[in-house]
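Convert to structure. Protein one:
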Amino acid sequence: MISLNVLKSRLNPRLLACGLHLGVSVLILLVILVLMRELWYPGPWFELDGGWQGLRILIGVQLVLGPVLTFLLFSPGKSRAAIRFDLLAIGLIQVGALIWGLGLVERQRPLALVVYDTAIYSLDRAALQMQDRDLDALLALAEGPLPLWLYSAPPQSPEEFENGFAKVIGLGLHDALVFEQFRPLAVNWAQAQGGALSPEQIATRLRGGLQGFSQWPPTVALEIGQLRVFDFIGRYRRGLLVFQDNGAFLGYLAG
């Protein structure tokens, strides 16, 4: 049997190497978290539209896969060449998995928020590529940082209707995400706000009722009738997005 002292002598170097790897991985993950919160999933979209789910994937890659491989493969008894080979293999595996994870998270980031009827939907890169469109085509529609605010206008002709219907049926797109129907929200706010919830609907949707909602956001002194509230239909969560009656986005309530 292996004595306790021998077991400790074998485990301690592995635990030290694993701990060092874990520390470096945490620092890298913090940088990625800042990137996600500031650029890919800013504001409420980290909570409402996939930021947390993407972060869980990256946590698995950064904080589990790499350190566990280090613990299993590292041994101070190996030759320097063997140790270098093991560390190189671990690094390549983790970098490859990290690139895959970052690519997945970036492809699912919301590129636009589309007001359609009574709700708002997010548009990601996959929905663009399904329609043979790219980010440049999207940026040509409206100004501003990503995600853009867009309005999905009703079809203006039989041809537009047929094109949209074909995409919905053939590609499995939601009606709200047909590219040819996108318009800048800022210049189409008058039409878009017609789908907002009524004050009575707002009151019944909130736990605190009308009184609780009229005090939110606390920094904005507005009556309930001056607010325009839409359902947000995210991939992972739902919520309420709140606008001022002039179209300015105020904030959200997570569902």
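Protein two, convert as well:
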Amino acid sequence: MSRRRERDRRLEKMEKEGSGPFVAGPTEGAGDELEGESILERMRSGGAEGLNPVHEQEQEEAHEVTRAKGRAQRVVAGLALVLALLGVTYMLVGSPSYEVTANFANASQLVEGNEVTMNGTAVGKIGSIELGDDGEALVTMSVEEPTAPIVRGTTATVRNTSLSGVANRQVELTPPPSQQAGPEIEDGGTMTQSDTVSAVDLDQIFNTLDAETVANLKKVIRGFEISYEGVGKQAN
């Protein structure tokens, strides 16, 4: 309605200024009632022939609005596509992880993929295990948020996840008391051997015994075997 009123005002102005002439005579077959009818009246009734500059301008404005809406829709569709691609990439690649390398005296049968835990909850995984210049095990661990980053004073301990199995180890992170916490370890930083505890296996204990002690231990084990022979079910 506002556009129509604006069009009427423009046509009336054209008539007053003499740029909107009246029809010189009646239109053939239209009757005497059209004689002297103004261009304005015929444009309003739709009976005028030829071009209507106001109507053309309105049509051009409507086309421009349509084109602008089309451009906006294409921009929104493009942004939605980019966000979808980013989401798929995030799910496939994963979020950037925080890593820290712990220096252990030995690898303690750790393998890549073993869990890293804190307070009994998995917070990361072991990414790689390498041999250091002095024979130590350099264990690189990825730690997820919100546990990452860890602070100086945190202890990394190799523990057994169960009594059975060989590669059943995990690294447990123990944070220090708040009053003893140091600065954050930067991404890619290291933990020294003073901050790590390797697992102790039975063969390591036996390696500390001399030959006489090992021989006596064998006798004790054989004695247990003889004393329990035939009474295993009762002993159980």
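The helical segments are 2-16, 39-45, 53-93, 202-206, 211-227, 232-235. The first strand starts at residue 98 and ends at 104.
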